[in-house]
Amino acid sequence: MDGTTEFMNNISSFRFNPNGLTALLFVLGMFSVSGALLDDLMKLQPGRSRRVTSTMRAGPDGKYDPNAPPRADKDERSNFDNFRVPPGATQVVMNVKGPGVITHIWFTFLGPEPQTWAPKGSANHQEMLLRMYWDDQPRPAVEAPVGDFFANAFGERREVISLPVVVEDADSYNCFWRMPFRKSARIEIINESDKPISLLYYNIDWIELDRLPSNTPYFHAQYRQEYPAVSGKDYVVLETRGRGHYVGTVLSVRTRSPAWFGEGDEKIWIDGESQPSIWGTGTEDYFLSAWGLKTTSTPFFGVPYFDQWGIVGGHTSAYRWHLADPIVFQKGIKVAFEHFGWISPDENPDYKSNSWNEREDDISSVAFWYQTGPSTFTARAPHARERRLPSLERIIVHAQDFLQPAHHGAGDAIRQQLAVHETAQMLYRPPSPSNAWVEIPFTVTNKEPLRLLIRGTTSYDFGRYQPYLNGVKLGGPLDFYSPEIAAKEFHLLDFWPAPGKYVLRLEAVGQNPQSQGCFLGLESIRLRERRPRVQSYGHDKNKDWRSNPVLYR
User: Fold this and answer.
1) Partners of 52 in the beta sheet?
2) What is the three-state SS of 82-105?
3) Nearest to 181 by CA among 100, 242, 245, 105
4) For the chain, which terminal residue's Cβ has fewer other Cβ atoms within 10 angstroms, N or C?
């Protein structure tokens, strides 16, 4: 048996090799456990290595020609190794004949923010749809936003350092999943943004082979979402018939309720069983963490993005690779998560807070698996317009509109654009905490359950400020200090405001001992919607928030 047949058979059966590695770890081609992978470098390998790249290839007319050899002269155009993909266009990055196996994919492109090469900004990676087709099949075996495929959800760029996926410095997208094909492989990126993909570079490494074993499984990855999760039903990550093994999950949650979302268990049905034989103990447990989730990146699991704990509108995205522990099925598999957790008493029919309430958060996922034959999973990725999270804001008041002296105390207030915010902020610069304050007015037109919050900035020279709403003190002082400049939401109040005029006032009360000043950065004041059931239960509808201001956590 030659080396290719041996390792491809090991992929399909997931038997351990003589050195104690699982087959999938063996084929990752980059990392070693117990030195086995380095030992394999002493073995002759079958096939021939090839690469598909974005390198500049010029035809007789000087324009790009994919069939021309790489341009190799001293003209600067020889270095134009990238593509600009207009809105709505599809860029085919690979289209080759087999048999073969893809061993490595690398992408990079400009981020969405305006910059010299793209003064009006560019598409973000949630708006780029990645599709991969094996053997001329009409349906893609891989269909996911570029970002989510590389464990970067919500259109945010985050570093990932794991075995099959590496996003170094949050801008070089690498994966080492083995992707076999018999007849052909086609990979494309569809730009579903209203902005171009700017400076798209790519390298795709593959090995051309004489043949593949008949039982070689195909690599699959499929995105799906529920905004919000459907009440009364588990969130399904994958359901397919066939033979294969499940190898990974990317799960992303935008919270629609206060408190912790992740008490729900993973449930896995194998080979058509009526009840799941694999039943977990909680969402963070599935992602190999404990007592919640926090930002981390490890070879087998991680949380690339976690912004704030327990708020309405918080974001968490986690990955889990089943490399040493693939979930094997012979006839089919279903993978799902319960969406249960803590919620505030005003979302509970009995006005209680406990750990076991069905939540209605916004959830998206990418399932990764190998199987023989085509997948029967019916999920398809919606257009980028539908992948974008719906706004939760009922009212947004931008602080930059209130720079006049009537709206602040001693010192001045200027407009400042920072990379951490989409819009400009108010930077208030008092000389000291004495007589330092800011007031932002807003108007409410309908009585409904809302959450009042500040979207602000923390920095090395920012102070502590006490919030008041129409003269009512809300909680304790807010500390706007942090060693580095960052965006942060400060949640203040859950209430049913009557229609009328309101003023949020922030009074300086000093500064963090580590801070160099008492400045204040405010992007906006927001009133954020609560889940519809808060309104239908109406527990707090007739309560006077002035006498007892409440923030549910």
Assistant:
1) 204
2) CEEECCCCEEEEEEEECCEEEEEE
3) 100
4) N
